[in-house]
Amino acid sequence: MIRKRNVGAALLLVAFVCQVAGAADAEISLDAEDPNLDFVYFHHPTDGTPNPDGSVPRDAGGVTVTMDVLGGDPDLSAVVSGRNIYPPAANTWRYRDFSKEQPTDTVYAAMSAFGTMPSLSCEISGLTDGAYKVYGVINVYETEEYPNWITAIMDLDDGSALAYPEDHYNLANSIANDNYYLAPLGFTTPPIRCRMAKSTVGMGDSDYYGLAYVREPLMAYGPTPANRAVDVLADGDLGWKTGDDPNDLGQPDPAITLHVLYLDPNSAWVASAEPDDPAAIVITDGGTGTTTYDPGSLVKDTMHYWRVDEAYGSVENPTIFKKGMVWSFRTEKEFPVIITQPQDQAVKEGGAAVFTVEATDPLSGTLDYEWRDPADQLVGGNSPTLTISPVAVADEGAYYCKVTNASGTVDSAAANLTAGRLVGRWLVATTGSDPNDLLQDVSGEDNHGVFYGGGLSSEAGPEAGSLALDFDGTDDYIEVADDAVLNYRDAVTVACWAKDNWHLNQWNFLAQKGIYHGTWELRRYNGYYVFRTNGNSWEDYLAGSQWATGDWVYVTCVYDGTNDYMYHDGRLVASRSDTGAMKDTTGEPLIIGTRQTAESSFDSYFFGSLSDLRLYNYGLNAAEVGELYYNATGEEFCYQSPMYDFNGDCYTDLEDLAMFAATWLDCGWIPDCLP
Q1: For burial by CB atoms within 10 Å, which of 128, 212, 404, 436 has the most?
Q2: Are residues 454 and 597 located together in one domain of the fold?
C-alpha cells in the first residue's frame, strides 16, 4: 500500500468531471504558425548535402539528432547537428512552410526515406528540460502510379505505436495539411527516443518520415529518479519539476497548487488512474518549482511506474487538471545477479563436461551455489563450476544452478548436456547379404529406413567386402522417420562413402534432415560436394574440392557450433565460420538420396552410389575424422601437419630442429646485415 500525504482525493471527484474541457482549452494546437511545433525528418543520406530546395542547414542551438538502423548498420548511422528547414518552393516541393524563426531548441534533421528502407532508431538530445508532446509525421509526394501506397509504423521508446495503413487518409485522429499527416505518439521528456519502421513504399525519394515535438508547458517534468533509471535506491525520494508557466516557458506555473501522484508496479493502473482513486496521493506543495515525496520503502528489484497530475485551485475545488506522463524506474537489486549463464555442452561420451555460472551479490556477501541435474536432484558441490565426468548417455538433459545470498535465491538458465556419440548409421552391409540390410540403422538407435523407388540395386562398396546402394537419379530414395536423437541442433557430423555417376550443373542431394532448407544438407554440384547448415539460403554453403565422376571418396562434413569443415578421405579441404543453433526440424524425416521440398514433393535425386552413412550428434575433430578414414581403409596418412614441421614429414623432430638451427641468427636488417 502506498502512503498518502494531505489526502483529499475524494473531494476531487466532482471537480475532475470538469477538467477535460479545461485541459483541452489549454492544449497547444498543431497550427502551422505555432512557434513551439518542431519537426525532425529522417532522410538518408546524411552527408551534409543541401536540402532538396537548395537551402543550407542552420544552427540547431546545441540539439543533436542521432539516427541508426536498428541492428547497427554502420553505413546508415549518422549524427546530425543542424537545422534543415524547407521553405516552400513553388511547383517543386509540397512542404509546409516552416521557414519561420524557431526557438533555440528547434532542430530539423533531414533524412530521405526512399524505396524500401530498414527500421530506424532516433534520439533527439540537447533539448531544454521540459515536457514534450510528440507526433508521428509522414510526408508523401504522391504520384498517379502510387497513390496512397504506404505502410509505416513508428513508436516512442516507451510510448504508443502509430501505424499508417495503405489508405492513410482515413487515419483516425490524424491532421492533414497539404501532404503531411500527423498523429500523436505520446508525451515524454528529453532525450526523445523513437523507433520507425517502413515498408511497401513506392513514391521514390520524395517521402519523409519523422517526429514533430511540441514543448508542453502544462504538465510536470524532470523526474527524479530519471525516467527508465535502474538500480534506484528503494528508500529514496521521488521528485519532479512543476509544469511551466504558459506565459513564461522555463519558469514554474505559479497557479499550480497541488499535485496528484500515482505510483505502482502496475503500469496500466498508473496510466489510467483518476484523481478520485483511493490509492492516489494528493500533495499540496503547490507550484514551488520542485516537489519531492517520500514513498517509504519500495519493493526491491521491481519496475515501478509513476505519474504526476497537477491542478489549480484548492483541494476542495480544483479548477483544472493537467495529466502527466508515465515514468518508470527499477529499484536496486536484492537477490544475486547472474552475469554469465551456463552454456549448452556437447561432449563426446567418456569426456568431461564443465558448466559455469558467474554471479554477483548486491549485498556484498557470500554466495552459495546448488547445482541441479535433469531430475532436479542435487549434484556437485557448493561451487560456481559443475563438472560431469565421464559423460554418459544417462547424463543427458538440462542442468541449472540455484544461487543464494542473504536475501534469497535465483535460478540460472538451464544448460543442456549432450553425450556426443554415433546416433545413426545406414548403408552398411557385406557382399552377398540381403540388400535390404542397407536400410537398417546399425548405430543401436534403431531408426531404420524405408526404400522408395524402382527397386533396390547394390554393388560392391569401397571397403573390402562391403556393399553400396545404387541410386538411379530418378525416383530412388530412403526415408528415416524423425526421432529425438536426429534433432540435435548445436552440432553435427555427417560422413559417408560417395560415388557420383554424373555432375551436370545442377543439385543432387545425398542426404538431408528436414523438409527443404532443413537442419543440414549434403549435396553434389558440378563436381563438388557441398555442405549447408543453419537453414541458410540455398547459395550459402561450404564446398569441398572437385572430385571426379565415378571415383569413390570418403566425405565428412562437420558443424561444431563455431565452424563448418569438409574433409575428403580424412583430409581437410574447406572450412568457414558458422555459428548459431541449426534449424529445428522436429517431426520432419531424414531423407537419403534426394531432397524433400514439401509434404509429398521431391526433386534433385542423386545419381550414384552411397555406402556407410554415419550421423554424429557432435562435431568430430580432425583426428577423429582421420581415424574414421584409417579404420575404413587402413591407409596411413598425415591428417594435420604439426607446428614447426619444416620438412613436411608430419613430425616435429631433430631434422626440423636442424633446419631451424641452420638459419639461426640470420639477419635481414638494413643496413646492419648488408653483405
Answers
A1: 212
A2: yes
